[in-house]
TrEMBL record:
Keywords: FAD, Flavoprotein, Oxidoreductase, Plasmid
Segments forming domain FAD-binding PCMH-type: 43-213
Lineage, highest ranks first: Bacteria, Pseudomonadati, Gemmatimonadota, Gemmatimonadia, Gemmatimonadales
Record's protein name: FAD linked oxidase domain-containing protein
Family: Belongs to the oxygen-dependent FAD-linked oxidoreductase family.
């Protein structure tokens, strides 16, 4: 790994005429509209400058140039954040999409991943060595935002969240410093980067711990929505005793043929010879209309839902909530809500938590929701911008219906219009207070505020 030197850029040296680094895209340029397009087609922000940086030095120069010009700064990783946090109006966007290199050290079982990489980049490089780290369930999601907010994925019950596997980070801070965070260097900062979002600077490289993984057994088990209430009750009981090597998500969605369905999506990452017995009850229940479960390479599993569940460009209104349990009332509310969904493109996804995620002490990282049994994503999706209100209302109604089982939110699943209270609530007072202290130390002027923002100088009432 190339060491970064810790260099100081005093405030007095900010040069307002500083030459911008990398490729600079401005309003009116042919590539401007492409460069400001995000996964969520509903987001329409117009930055003053988009700077495509190629390395940490260019990121430092971009931070310095933005501050010299008095411009707000946004950081773009994979551009998947549903609230559109990768962009700001009239500011400077540090676009990391050219920084996607992944270097694997197979002996140390680590991967150094540049700050703009996607999970597809990481999975391809690590699986070439038979290794893997927990990443998002959609391969096009950015490593940056996902890891900094926590990082839920298929391998988490075996090896923890993405952020639990983060062993070091290289960061450009609000003062233009290049610093490292690890257990030995700035360990408090590493704590904050494990769940505290992009609040402390631009992460130019993440180093992850890897574990061996040959392949997985995964795929969809498809049931009709008419049977979803009993399927989800079975799912709740089945997942209660599932081993750490098995993670099962459940989805209420509409098939490509237009039929509303309930899909169970298992992912087995344990020994291949034990998969059949572990998955049998799941595959026999119902029985399902279709059983598409089969052995596959991990990279195939990581792409399995890309097209069906997560194509880019739709109008999206997204909310999330950790659930302490899947009660009968919650199951009934979710199924009834999906039966009345205002758009066939909308989905409700239940993600099984627990296992290694729950064994990390609550104060060991800035990701606080270790006790959740499930995480729920409520995703309203449609094509015509004029229909926004009806679909937003549907998502809000689903959210209201599940509140009795809610434990708190996942910062990475907070949507547009969810403000500071929701961010504070997502962390809880103790974690939030510690994040504020860290923010005061590393970014007291809140230069990095287009994120699930931790407000400097906030005090517990
Ligand atoms: C289709 C889809 C599938 C998803 N699946 C999962 C999933 O399986 N598991 C899960 O946990 N989450 C999932 N998410 C949520 C995801 O974690 C968040 O949307 C996350 O913010 C995406 O990160 P990004 O880098 O792609 O986003 P961006 O929109 O680029 O960035 C999001 C935030 O992170 C900051 N950021 C990004 N990179 C850096 C960096 N290098 N340094 C500093 N700050 C940075 C940005 O400034 C912004 O505040 C999914 C989202 C979508 C849209």
């Amino acid at each position: 790994m190339e060491p970064l030197t810790t260099a100081t850029v005093p405030m007095s040296s900010y040069d307002p005429t500083a030459v911008l680094p990398g490729t600079v895209i401005r309003p009116g340029d042919a590539s401007y509209d492409d460069a400001r397009r995000l996964w969520n087609g509903m987001i329409d922000r117009r930055p003053a400058l988009i700077v495509r940086c190629r390395d940490a030095q260019e990121v430092r120069a971009a931070v310095v140039a933005a501050r010299a010009r008095g411009l707000p700064v946004a950081v773009r990783g994979g551009g998947h954040n549903a609230a559109g946090l990768a962009l700001c109006d009239d500011g400077l966007v540090i676009d990391l999409s050219q920084m996607r290199g992944v270097t694997v050290d197979p002996d140390a079982r680590t991967a150094r991943v540049e700050g703009g990489a996607t999970w597809a980049d990481v999975d391809a490089a690590t699986q070439a060595h038979g290794l893997a780290v927990t990443g998002g369930a959609i391969s096009t999601t950015g490593v940056g935002g996902l890891t900094l907010g926590g990082g839920i994925g298929w391998l988490m019950r075996r090896q923890g969240l993405a952020c639990d596997n983060l062993v070091a980070a290289e960061l450009v801070t609000a003062d233009g410093h290049a610093v490292r965070a690890s257990d030995h260097e700035n360990p408090d900062l590493l704590w904050g980067l494990r769940g505290g979002g992009g609040n402390f600077g631009v992460v130019t490289a993440f180093t992850f711990r890897l574990q061996p993984l040959d392949g997985v057994v995964s795929g969809l088990l498809v049931h009709p929505l008419a049977r979803a209430k009993e399927v989800l009750r079975f799912y709740r009981e089945f997942t209660r005793s599932a081993p750490d090597t098995l993670t099962v998500f459940a989805g209420l969605l509409t098939s490509p043929e237009g039929a509303p369905i309930c899909a169970l999506i298992p992912s087995w990452c344990g020994p291949a010879e034990e998969a059949e017995a572990a998955l049998r009850p799941l595959r026999e229940f119902g029985p399902p209309l279709a059983d598409l479960v089969q052995p596959m390479p991990y990279v195939a599993q990581q792409r399995l839902l890309d097209d069906g569940m997560a194509p880019s460009g739709f109008q999206v209104y997204w909310r999330g909530e950790f659930l302490r349990a899947l009660t009968d009332e919650t199951i009934d509310a979710l199924v009834d809500a999906y039966a009345a969904a205002t758009s066939p493109l909308s989905v409700l996804v239940i993600e099984q938590m627990g296992g290694a995620v729950a064994r990390v002490p609550r104060d060991a990282t800035a990701f606080p929701n270790r006790d959740a049994a499930f995480n729920l994503a409520m995703v309203g999706r449609w094509t015509d911008p004029a229909e926004r209100d009806v679909h937003v209302r549907w998502v809000r109604d689903v959210h209201d219906a599940v509140r009795p089982s809610a434990l708190g939110s996942y910062v990475n699943y907070l949507g547009v219009e969810e403000g500071a209270d929701r961010v504070r609530g997502a962390y809880g007072d103790a974690t939030y207070a510690r994040l504020v202290a860290l923010k005061n130390a590393w970014d007291p002027e809140n230069v990095f505020r287009f994120n699930q923002n931790v407000a400097p100088n906030w005090r517990l009432a």
